[in-house]
UniProtKB/TrEMBL annotation, chains A, B:
GO terms for molecular function: L-serine ammonia-lyase activity; threonine deaminase activity; threonine synthase activity. Its cofactor is pyridoxal 5'-phosphate. The keyword Metal-binding does not apply. Residues 80-381 form the Tryptophan synthase beta chain-like PALP domain. This is Threonine synthase. NCBIfam families: thrC (TIGR00260).
Amino acid sequence: MALDAADLGPATSLTCRECGESYDLGPRYACEQCFGPLEIAYDFTGVTRASIEAGPRNIWRYRGLLPVPTNVQDTPNTEPGFTRLVRADHLAESLGMQRLWVKDDSGNPTHSFKDRVVAVALAAARELGFKVLACPSTGNLANAVAAAAARAGIRSAVFVPSNLEQQKIVTTAVYGGTFVTVRGNYDDVNRLASEIAGEQDDWAFVNVNVRPYYAEGSKTLGYEIAEQLGWRLPDQIVVPVASGSQLTKIDKAFGELIKLGLVEDKPYRVFGAQATGCSPVAAAFKAGHEVVRPVKPDTIAKSLAIGNPADGPYVLDVVRRTGGAVEDVTDAEVVEGIRLLAGTEGIFGETAGGVTVACLRKLVSSGALDPDAETVIINSGDGLKTLDAVAPVARPSAEIAPSLEDFRASGLA
Amino acid sequence: MALDAADLGPATSLTCRECGESYDLGPRYACEQCFGPLEIAYDFTGVTRASIEAGPRNIWRYRGLLPVPTNVQDTPNTEPGFTRLVRADHLAESLGMQRLWVKDDSGNPTHSFKDRVVAVALAAARELGFKVLACPSTGNLANAVAAAAARAGIRSAVFVPSNLEQQKIVTTAVYGGTFVTVRGNYDDVNRLASEIAGEQDDWAFVNVNVRPYYAEGSKTLGYEIAEQLGWRLPDQIVVPVASGSQLTKIDKAFGELIKLGLVEDKPYRVFGAQATGCSPVAAAFKAGHEVVRPVKPDTIAKSLAIGNPADGPYVLDVVRRTGGAVEDVTDAEVVEGIRLLAGTEGIFGETAGGVTVACLRKLVSSGALDPDAETVIINSGDGLKTLDAVAPVARPSAEIAPSLEDFRASGLA
């Protein structure tokens, strides 16, 4: 593909996160020397609070910090981001905390943070000459890719395990792209996607062959939190860990803001949250290991169920460097976390949100997290997509006949 | 209840929409003379574009035009509104139109426009001394009331028919309020709610005894559309019709903006959209009647399935006065409307959104709506809540084994 005309904004090159080898910008994702993951390097110029605040109310206000073209907001896209940062006084009170915020990413166009990463991947993929937006997925990513491609007027090709829940199938198929169910588990689908990427030159698998660009989209969570706090970093942040990329990119965003002088340089602590049924990073953290041993996932928190998280070691680095921790909670605690967030703040989070709230509670209880320091937690998706998780316990108070007598007798008056 | 301390902002009194009788502000909803519906009257002062633009990015930027206290945004609430107004060039192209926008209210906290009306009802109910936020509902309203009460830290009491879909039960029960299923249809539930409202002095049934306040929340859709177009009214707008209140309040909002000099006074045409299986207002419009004959609803568009719409005659007034029309479409056309909006713009709307898109298409085909004039349509809810409607047709392209050979053989490469 011809890259001469590509406008990737402030991005300058790709650098191996392991050996430091540098590459020209292009559709690469692994180091040719050591197979390490490639990361975008930048030359930021002219980014100020004012230039950001003058931008649109979505992730493109940070375009000067992303590998996307200067005019990215002029091409039809789903315009994700700038979701609510909700002051959560009732939840804080119930946990004995002082200042707590929920970054509620269920407000994105397809109701998960995946809209952010997909929007950045799509913008970069166009510049790199790709014609089809593709992914292997188990749910949220499938929704986000199919919607973003429809909005952009290009073809999507989404691959999912054939045993996926009916609701996730409908919510992807409705957008009308190419949608293939694969008889196998997610690992099988993922491997097939890599093989197809090797054959189909103009297919951008967002989380495979354009992953370095895609992953940068998570930085916008960090930028937004800082800006919405009034250009200030929180003292503590709790982030759900699947591949681990969301956590490391939020840390990267905070670091960039400090370096650019857009926020005061101050210490902050980063905490990771996992479900016990898929907690390889928490296990490594607790054991003091530097490597993450893969596990076979078994949890209701399916959007976090990555048994071999690509960024696991980097999560450990960030958490240890900042004085945080990685915690994990049982599925029963996840359900309680969902109900606690809904009941105190009126926010119905996905299972991943339940993991984060439950880990927050556990971290406060254990003393690992300071209840008096300002804390932000991420709700990365919407409870409407994981209804089965709470269905057994989210039940009516009573069933009555349509009469005042029956209502009085119910004791609910 | 003592109303001396009540701050209802610019609201001055309640006026009967039928006979013009005037009442002091309070928890009233029907005229004592003629049983007509009561409407809020105002004295607007000091509302300018600048004062609005200086407000928060939610419906409270219009607090100077609503029956809510001056400091409404300081009390915990779900902060709905200021949802996206999406330029829909692909949808326009497919319909042969020039300038089309989708006001996407699925971006509200519980993913429907009901968050707007509930937030206004809650704010007024607090001022009027109510202690419990209640409603009869079949879905979206139940979600919105339960979430808003949880966020506000007060009790909710929601009543629904016991045959409600499991997903709507879960999405209400998760917030932890009082949640009663009633063995009967929606009319039975509604009647029971009115009876309970007569007994429970401090229960505010948002759509019953505080309905005049509640209904005003829909005005914010009109304000936002005008502001998001750059303080300008569209030439045409298509609005789904259930009770009819959303349509009449958008018209009221446009009229207020003109009167206050916030937008240029220019003609605009208002169109109503119904599902044929519950189209009493469309039937009356087409027959040239001034009264609306109740029907027994039979449509997949359940959030619009009000067989005896309270504001039906007022919808006819608005539509006829502005040169619009009321159209209706079959359930099959509703499903096609949902797919068309998803496939062209990446927006997965509720069945009500499908009704609106399909009616738009029909209105363009018939020549009733001018394809060259700037048009706004409302997507009032989220497709995730009405998956069953599209499940039979939103299917995968193919199912394959996890092998390149199978993928190649699928013909999808």
